Amino acid sequence: MSAPVLLAAEGVSVRYAGLARPALDNVSLQVHAGVPLGVVGESGSGKSTLIRTLLGLERPAAGRVVYRGQDVAAMRGTALRPFRRKVQMVFQDPYNSLNPRMTVGQTLGEVLTVHRLAGRGSVARVVGDLLGQVGLDPSLAVRYPHELSGGQRQRIGIARAISLEPEVLLADEPVSALDVSVQAQVLGLLDRLGREKGITLVLIAHDLAVVGSVCQQMVVMEQGRIVESGPARSVIDQPSHPYTRQLIAAVPEIEPLMPPAPL
Amino acid sequence: MPEPLLQLDDLRVTFASDLGEVCAVDRVSFTVDRGEVVALVGESGSGKSASALAVGGLLPEYARVEGRIRLGGDDLVGRTNSGWRGIRGSRIAYVFQEPATALNPVFTAGYQIGEALTVAGRTDRLDERMAELLDAVGLRDAGRIASSYPHQLSGGQQQRVVLAMALAGEPDLLIADEPTTALDVTVQAQILDLLAGLQRSRGMAVLLITHNLAIAARMAHRLVVLYAGQVVEEGPAREMIRAPRHPYTRALVRAVPRLRREGGAVPLVGIPGQIPSPFALPSGCRFHPRCGHCVASCREQAPVLSDTGAGWRCRCPFALEVGT
């Protein structure tokens, strides 16, 4: 792969006090510019710890996280600012990740003001523009989170993340709390933003079909380790690790159909 | 023809709210035969859970239930608490989405299964029955599981305990409301296999509530698709998944992520827009603002649910023309 590496984990291990097994055990992966990467795993696989570590929120016990050639753990003060801005996050639960006492416009406007991306006079216009980009009506700016559906809230979370014009967007189970019809909308949106705005998506999900629908590269995690990695299509079509095969067999699929029991 | 096990006729559920009365379930009719698996499919707000809760009289007091619900010849609507004795927990049992909230955190799994057996009036051979139930739901280490508190069990084990409690009364009808949505995929597959096996071996009817068509197609004989409180399509599960007749069902089928596609990757197709608010239902067909086949008459005339042959009903006048 020739695309430059934006973000990488190099032999990262993370341990939590009181647990015998490390949450991450010697994990290495690379996020190449423009190549959406999927991370597949179930509860306890370490995928959420991996995200926190890639964001610099978790200190590795061994190994390092590297953003554009720089060790994230060594970044201080002003060196941290571009990293914080260029590596953004979309959370799983659109209900708990928005401040219930702020309108959509205030939530998005605050981010723009803090990062000085819009002046007092232009905030409303930029917010309206952001809402348009995630497929929402600009009139939603005056609404509070409880007035929105789950899919709309997740779009606000995405609008917040892309308002900072990130290079990498880490999305932790962004559609698992949504209805199937809305899932497809949000995945389509993430896919489109990646192509149109040059944002590289790192999609963490337990559902292989979800990851396979958007990502070119894929890693499969089990108990803190990467057990398989490669192009998403070949991992799905020719899985080599038994755990990957187990995950594939477990995905509920429309075809082939299991015959229901005769009446 | 023998009488169906469960029969809903023009079920209407309305809730009183600050903004006036809302209708969550609007004249829904369908049946479940003995030993049959019927899946009630729809998005959040389609009325699927309200319909399922109405069957067991589990809706809150501010809900008004009209129409008829019959279970093996007995009317269920309008029963008081004591009127549910001998029905809920024995003839009808429920499994809900979150096993962690369905179980009482301060009692052991064994205590709670024992309680379910007592409520169902099966108090003889209690230990023996409990061991049988734990075995039936695939919990091998019965002694340890029975003495465990819910937080000491995994999500999959918790859902198996809930299932054991549901089976305690040997119900004719199991109502499973998104029983695997909160579980990991591999655990989900195990629980679905278990449910299918138990359904077959016990000849139990299952009303499965799910938003996932792939799960519905895998588990059910028949599908009932709900949209904005109404049945929009009903028919044989496998045929409907292959050739859905209502534009909404077709859109749902296309929205399911697939592992493998013929001819390489095809982008996922979501359904534009969202399910309408019950306070602002569109005129005419309730699906028309999101439908790719909408014509002028769809905005004005509310379509009726009509028979389209071979136990198949569809609420779209263009059902057979639209095609895939």
Structural class of chain B: alpha/beta
Low-confidence stretches of chain A at least 5 residues in length (pLDDT < 50)? 256-263
CATH fold call of the largest domain in chain B: Rossmann fold
N-to-C SSE string of chain A, H for helix and E for strand: EEEHEEHEHHHEHEHEEHH
The strands making up the biggest β-sheet of chain A line up spatially as 6-7-8-3-9-10
Q: Level of helix content of chain A?
A: 25-40%
Structural class of chain A: alpha/beta
User: What's the rounded overall pLDDT mean of chain B?
Assistant: 90
Level-2 CATH architecture of the largest domain in chain B: 3-Layer(aba) Sandwich
How far apart lie the N and C ends of chain B? Answer: 34 Å
By DSSP (H or I, 4+ residues per run), the number of helices of chain B equals 12
Largest sheet of chain B: 8 strands, mixed
Characteristic key phrases:
heterodimer; A: 263 residues; alpha/beta; Rossmann fold; six-stranded mixed sheet; globular; disordered C terminus; B: 324 residues; 2 domains; eight-stranded mixed sheet; four-stranded antiparallel sheet; 12 helices; 12 strands
Detailed description of the structure:
The complex is a heterodimer of chains A (263) and B (324). Helices cover 34% and strands 22% of the residues of chain A. Chain A has 263 residues and is an alpha/beta fold. Chain A has a domain at 5-94 and 167-250: Rossmann fold (3-Layer(aba) Sandwich), CATH 3.40.50.300. In chain A, 47% of the residues are buried. Chain B folds into two domains: 6-91 and 172-322, P-loop containing nucleotide triphosphate hydrolases (Rossmann fold), CATH 3.40.50; 101-170, no CATH class. Chain B has helices at 48-55, 99-102, 109-119, 126-136, 142-146, 155-167, 185-202, 213-219, 237-242, 247-255, 296-300, 319-322; strands at residues 6-17, 20-32, 37-41, 63-71, 74-75, 92-95, 173-177, 205-210, 222-227, 230-236, 306-307, 313-314. The longest helix of chain B has 18 residues, at 185-202. Chain B is globular, with a radius of gyration of 21 Å. The two termini of chain B are 34 Å apart. The chains are: A alpha/beta (263), B alpha/beta (324).
